[in-house]
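The records we work with from here on pair a chain with its fold. These numbers are not coordinates but entries in a learned vocabulary of local backbone shapes. To see the layout at work, look at the sequence and tokens printed below.
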Amino acid sequence: MTGTLPATFVKGFHNEDLVRRMEYRKLGGTGLKVSALSLGGATLSALYDKKYDIDEGIKTVQEAIKSGINYIDTAPFYGQGESERLLGQALKDVPREAYYIATKVGRYELDTDRMFDFTAAKTRQSVKRSLDLLGLYHVDVLQVHDVDAAPSLDMVLNETIPVLEEFVKAGRARFIGITGYDVEVLKDCAERSKGRVHTVLSYARYTLLDNTLLRHMKTFKELNVGVICAAAHALGLLSNAGPQAWHPGSQELQALGRQAADICKKRNVELGKLAMCYTMQLEDAATFLIGIPNRHLLKLNLYVVLNGLTEAEQEVLLYLRSNVFKRFYSWGSTLSTIKDFK
């Protein structure tokens, strides 16, 4: 619903016109109303760009919140603390009531032997470090990062999540979520949690390449779990610039992305805009989370959210769906692709 002001609106800080034009949706049963477009923290680190601009990242975060984006997602894995540290700097000058923020536990290092740790001790240590880097007394959501990479869901439910519940009880967090690539595992974990999981973040599973998330949207709705649909650009694959070298997609899939990008470039269209607009048609998702490392991309994505596509862009999107993206693809599982980060 547009036109109304969310609970996160702060008069004198926000651009009221843009906030009124933004759509805000219920995040499951949390009681939070989050912006349709949300800010992902992965690109606010060296994970996507070794030469990422810290100052520009800080300005982008602040501009995003002023423009009506009120949900931010980050993780220790993003630059091994770089993203959380940058956000901590950016949020010093932002009223705490102006945004909701989520971070994660469970995934940490680029070294595959030390990448994942779902133990209670590491989880407790991680949350404390995240709060310190962010410079916050509390976060709104604590998420288990890539539950599909955990040794078992038993460990997630019986060891990792109980620690997160300790922080909720202590007032250092409000809600608990899970994230992952494997939608089946997300569904199983949400069902088995019996109400202990409040949000589910699924990435790259409802895009021009893959609609797997549709399988369990009904279940998530029945569980009253808020769905965060992330990575409309399929980790950079669906953009004119293309993905990073570590992208987990097959050579065939990456060739498809390049083909689509070439078509868009020839027609003076940005593939990322088309991908974003397509993904945002998913019904019942609370918010659409993407990485936005600079103000140029912020303006581009805000324009798509607030105004949609031009007639020419719509024609290119229709052409791509009919002639390039003729079937759906996936790239296996989280564990099958972690070697790409070495």
Observations:
- Residues 153-169 form the longest helix (17 residues).
- The first strand starts at residue 24 and ends at 26.
- The chain has a mean pLDDT of 96.
- The beta strands are 24-26, 33-35, 37-40, 71-73, 100-105, 139-144, 173-180, 199-203, 226-230, 287-291.
